[in-house]
Amino acid sequence: MKLREIIGKDEITLSFEVFPPKTDTDYAAVERAACGVAALHPSYMSVTYGAGGSTRGNTVKIAGKLQKDYGVTSLAHLTCVGADRTGIYAALDEMSRAGIENVLALRGDIPKDFQGEIFTDYKHASDLVADIKAYGDFCVGGACYPEGHPDAANKKEDIENLKNKVDAGCEFLTTQMFFDNNIYYNFLYRIREAGITVPVIPGIMPITRAVQVKNAVKLSGCNVPERFRNIVDRFGGVPDAMKQAGIIYATDQIIDLIANGVKNIHVYSMNKPDIAEGIQKNLSEILKLKI
Ligand code: FAD
Predict the structure, then answer these.
(1) 0.90 exceeded by the pTM?
(2) Domain holding 56: CATH number?
(3) Range of 260's domain?
(4) Which of 89, 135, 190, 290 is the most exposed place for a label (fewest CB within 10 A)?
(5) 134: how many CB neighbours lie within 10 A of its CB?
(6) Domain count of the chain?
(7) pLDDT tens digits along 111-148
(8) Which among 5, 11, 17, 171 is annotated as catalytic?
(9) pLDDT for 161-180, tens place per residue?
């Protein structure tokens, strides 16, 4: 099913993200984790794509399996950094053969040790979006950054570039993680003002281990509010307590979003079925509500 149909329904959706293994040795464990998340029957699941296409086969394999064995619609990520058109078309053909109809089109981060030409046929995600739309019958989404992309000169330019990406054919956007919902609400206001009208699905990252905070900030540059820092300071040293607090903080963010009219929620469940299940259980009655 196309994602535009799932997120277009008058229902609250809760979806989860998993990542494929970097090496084939880890495949079985990762597949088990992804299937554990799929067994919760989320609205859909996204499967990330390793830097520079390093996980291409496994992304498609896992995304295909979630659909075939669990009936969970999948959204396969695809990056264009270091890729040429032939390679992208080959990836899209592979996805089609696996029954994947939804692609999150990304530029990707530029790997530090990359050898060769980094930008050949694609320079920005918008180039990839346009090419995927022209190539096949895919529902295409893209990424957005409520706190601004780290490479962007400023937020205004970042939003102008985002508008180009949407105009190229992006049907929905998923946000980078954020820990303060006001950042999302302000961003939404600014992009609507700029004429971006597609659904903007908030990406919620449950931080259930203290070490994740440092990594999250390093990767995304996102702001960590005082309230959340206090939680990590108090519970970070006790794994079970931190896990519980992290699930509750993420749930609290989601409840606030839904209370403010947001109906599609994506959770970076990081191959952790127990965390996905914890959040889903906390929202069990809320998820039954009609819009
Ligand atoms: P773009 O949309 O191309 O934007 C990147 C930068 O270029 C921005 O600063 C933008 O303002 C600027 N820009 C865009 N268009 C133009 C233009 N025409 N002229 C000048 N500047 C321009 N990475 C992975 O490797 N694998 C994944 O699976 C993955 N999944 C992700 C999922 C989500 C929801 C998010 C938020 C990020 C994900 N990433 C993933 C990370 C992403 O690849 C990086 O953040 C990357 O640096 C930017 O990708 P993008 O698609 O947002 O790029």
Answers:
(1) yes
(2) 3.20.20.220
(3) 3-288
(4) 290
(5) 9
(6) 1
(7) 777 777 788 899 999 999 999 999 999 999 999 999 99
(8) 17
(9) 999 999 999 999 999 999 99
